[in-house]
């Protein structure tokens, strides 16, 4: 393995996105030097390894799997295809050297080394927003964790973070940990959410909170953390339409543990250092329909591109990125050149769209392009539209739209055929409260 330093495609990240991308690329590049997967942990699988609850794979496999079970499906296939993996290895930088990209990697067993690849797939996943990003006043006692850190302690390290718990934020990880802590014998006092709606999936509200009698307070946040050695409690307050605490609504909630589930941030230090253009809304790269970034030959997928709601969709998107990276190698005449494409941007009611550009079809047989987006606010009987000026390219009516759930729409070559690279596709959504 140490002598293998030149590959067709290098995939950074061995979680669900990286595994799916590496497998898809390997199926098109079967040679030993075709694909390399680099993972910083000692095993592949990423965050799935600590997600022992079920619910994964309902779309992909038609059955409810735990996180490790879902990951093992892809790990087994990668092993069967002979995808080489550099484990316990960190990528320190990616630089563009023309035909090749150079990855500076570091590992305990091999020290510093350079891996060269003609295409790179960024699949580093995301990280949790920490307390420092929230500016919550108060002391700095022990007992304050991100929800994912607490999940790791319980499920992988067999360590109980605390017994009397408050959760700030109604993201999916936070609600899942409310249930997990309860099952381990802890008392979850409540889940507090700043927004006037829950941030996570409806099924987790029902299965993790309602089914266990855990109260959810909307429009409420933590305004103070108390305790010197160990956390003694938090002060919470209602917030107004401006999302600032309202005077006179403060109350003290005793607890020894505070779990933070207040958002995820795509891991993109490598992308920024490589000069990739970033989307300020998603925190991920600006990409085309093949998941290629502004740097030719560098692709991005999964939660490093934008935070997904379901891992099934992460795998689907990553497979598209892996195939595109492999196909990129067979098109040397097009490398570094721009393909005619149309811009895609959010309009009324939509927070962001991915991709940001879609290549115009080269023939009527071209595959359809997928557009993913999130709405700004919850609504019922919502209509989503993809249009150029007054021309509607696609339209769908949904019984319900929610920021926690991605919306996916497809555009066939017939809808794109009449467009030019001067056009912009606007994605909008409207509905009733």
Helix/strand/pairing class, anyone? alpha/beta
* Quaternary structure state of the chains depicted: single chain
Mean pLDDT: 93
Number of domains: 3
From the N-terminal CA to the C-terminal CA, the straight-line distance is: 57 Å
Low-confidence runs (pLDDT<50, min 5 residues)?
none
Radius of gyration: 23 Å
Task: Find the CATH topology of the largest domain.
Answer: FAD/NAD(P)-binding domain
CATH class term of the largest domain = Alpha Beta
Identify the overall geometry.
globular
Write the layout of secondary structure elements.
Blueprint lengths: L5 E7 L3 H13 L6 E4 L28 H15 L3 E2 L2 E9 L2 E8 L3 E12 L3 E3 L15 E3 H9 L8 E5 L3 H12 L3 E7 L8 H8 L6 E3 L1 E7 L6 E6 L12 E4 L2 E4 L3 E3 L2 H5 L24 E3 L10 H19 L11 E6 L3 E5 L2 E3 L9 E7 L3 E10 L2 E11 L5 E5 L1 H4 L7 E9 L1
Parallel strand pairs: 1-2, 1-6, 2-3, 6-17, 8-15, 9-10, 9-15, 10-11, 18-25
Antiparallel strand pairs: 4-5, 5-6, 7-16, 12-13, 13-14, 18-20, 19-21, 21-24, 22-23, 22-25
Helix pairs in contact: 1-2, 1-7, 3-4, 4-5
What does this structure look like?
With 433 residues, the chain is of the alpha/beta class. It has three domains: 1-127 and 263-337, FAD/NAD(P)-binding domain (3-Layer(bba) Sandwich), CATH 3.50.50; 130-262, FAD/NAD(P)-binding domain (3-Layer(bba) Sandwich); 340-433, Immunoglobulin-like, CATH 2.60.40. It is 20% helix and 34% strand. It is built from eight helices and 25 strands. The protein has helices at residues 16-28, 67-81, 147-155, 172-183, 202-209, 269-273, 311-329, 413-416; strands at residues 6-12, 35-38, 85-86, 89-97, 100-107, 111-122, 126-128, 144-146, 164-168, 187-193, 216-218, 220-226, 233-238, 251-254, 257-260, 264-266, 298-300, 341-346, 350-354, 357-359, 369-375, 379-388, 391-401, 407-411, 424-432. The strands form six sheets. Strands 1, 2, 3, 4, 5, 6 and 17 form a seven-stranded mixed beta sheet that branches. Strand 22 and strand 23 (391-401) form a beta hairpin. Helix 4 (172-183) packs parallel to helix 5 (202-209).
